[in-house]
Write a structure and sequence with these properties.
Helix 2 crosses helix 3, helix 6 (about 175-190) crosses helix 7 and helix 9 (about 275-285) packs across helix 10. The strands form 3 sheets. The chain has an 8-stranded mixed beta sheet with strand order 3-4-5-2-6-7-1-8, with helices on both faces. A 7-stranded mixed beta sheet has the order 10-16-13-12-11-14-15, with helices on both faces. A two-stranded antiparallel ribbon has the order 9-17. A hairpin with a 5-residue loop joins strand 4 and strand 5 (about 95-100). Helix content is about 35%, strand content about 20%. It has 3 domains: about 10-170, Rossmann fold (3-Layer(aba) Sandwich); about 175-215, no CATH class; about 220-395, Nucleotidyltransferase, domain 5 (2-Layer Sandwich). It starts with 9 loop residues before the first helix and ends with a helix. The chain is of the alpha/beta class and about 400 residues long. The model has no long low-confidence stretch (mean pLDDT about 85).
């Protein structure tokens, strides 16, 4: 693979030149295929002539930070700004790059640009893309990993496919032999008889740059141990509560430990939905928790009042007279994230180890599956929800 004086891979440069007059330019590729790097270099080249305004859009502010890192590495330019006021980079010739995350289409209205670049556009709300394209006077560049199909592609890809480029890690001349071997190993693992759904998905999407669907059973790497084994895992434990209020739904409280890229699970509570805050308070006491035990819980839904009552119990002396309950509990909000992304993070672990504390937990993990729309199938996913919040927490602290 050749790299020209612009530092752009030959295949990408040929594609960009051939589509210099195309309204939409779409690059779909696997991980480390160089699509963002090369698009950044190409748009930087386009901005070196007459002054233009370039709007770079990602789905979230954390995603914008990643785009900025790629852009700075590719171009050698410096981006300044803040999450509140936005990020930008102005060139000596007057060209301006603006980096934005728009959670809703109303925020895009009034924004104009000569060129738009939608990074990981499959994660950006469709209405945001639609409004932004109407405000763009020139070309629009779309880059993404093919994690799911989108009807947007039917609108933005020419019938002959001339404005569409699919790439893989083999198209990136900057990868080291060790990095290439890592991708080769993923492909090899996906071809084994015991390959998991996630192994196959990763090879198809991230190695081959093909669209992949996560459909079927999620967790094949399940292991089992005892509560005694769980206690002996030399790692921090976090407690997660998925609270149900009344009805047939279940409340689950699970402990999690992360060790050697495996998630260890213990279930403290799994029972029919809580009737009131005092009942749940006694359940927490029965689990061995008190005011000094940090617990994370999902504050969504009707259970919020119960959670607030558990925290502020000491302010209600006329009701909470029991010494065990008067100090309340230490409960904070979970890191929810997106369901599919957290499920994929769980699938990427080297294993999930479930102890013998509760058969329902084992049943949930063994039966966890995704349907054709990549949504969780079935009704019982209470400990799965706790596990999703746990993996988000461990990732947030760098474990």
């Amino acid at each position: 693979m050749m790299v020209n004086s612009l530092g752009i891979s030959e295949r990408y440069l040929r594609f960009f030149v051939e589509n210099i007059n195309s309204r939409y330019v779409v690059c779909i590729g696997g991980r480390r295929s160089g699509k963002s790097f090369n698009v950044a270099k190409w748009i930087r080249f386009l901005s070196s002539g007459k002054p233009i305004k370039v709007l770079v859009i990602a789905a979230t502010f954390p995603a914008i930070q990643l785009v900025i890192e790629d852009f700075q590495r590719a171009t050698g330019l410096t981006v300044t700004g803040s999450m509140i006021y936005g990020y930008s980079c102005k060139l000596n010739n007057g060209s301006l790059f603006q980096f934005r995350a728009f959670p809703e289409s109303q925020r895009v209205q009034g924004t104009t640009a000569d060129i738009c670049w939608f990074e990981e556009f499959l994660n950006i709300p469709e209405e945001v893309i639609r409004v932004a394209t109407m405000s763009c006077t020139g070309q629009m560049y779309f880059t993404a990993n093919p994690t799911r199909k989108s009807k947007l592609l039917d609108d933005y890809i020419n019938k002959d496919g001339s404005n569409f480029l699919r790439t893989t890690y083999k198209d990136n001349p900057y990868l080291t032999p060790e990095q290439r071997k890592e991708f080769d190993d993923i492909k090899l693992r996906s071809q084994q008889p015991n390959a998991t759904l996630y192994d196959i998905f990763c090879a198809k999407v991230y190695c081959d740059g093909e669209f992949g669907d996560l459909v079927g059973r999620c967790f094949e790497k399940l292991e089992y141990n005892t509560y005694s084994d769980y206690l002996n895992i030399p790692s921090e434990e976090i407690l997660i509560m998925d609270l149900a209020f009344g009805g047939a739904d279940k409340t689950a409280i699970c402990g999690f430990k992360m060790y050697n890229k495996k998630l260890y699970v213990h279930t403290y509570q799994y029972k029919q939905g809580t009737i009131n805050a005092k009942e749940q308070a006694w359940d927490l006491i029965d689990c061995g928790f008190n005011a000094y035990t940090p617990i994370q819980a999902d504050y969504g839904g009707v259970g919020r009042q119960i959670l607030d009552s558990l925290i502020m119990a000491q302010q209600n002396d006329e009701v909470w007279t029991e010494p065990e309950l008067k100090m309340g509990f230490q409960i904070s909000n979970v890191i929810k994230g997106k369901i599919l992304e957290s499920i994929m993070a769980l699938m990427a672990l080297d294993g999930i180890v479930i102890d013998d504390s509760n058969y329902n937990t084992r049943e949930e993990f063994e039966g966890c599956a995704l349907d054709e729309q990549q949504r969780l199938k079935g009704e019982n996913d209470h400990t799965i929800a706790c596990a999703r919040y746990a993996i988000n927490y461990f990732h947030a602290i760098g474990k």
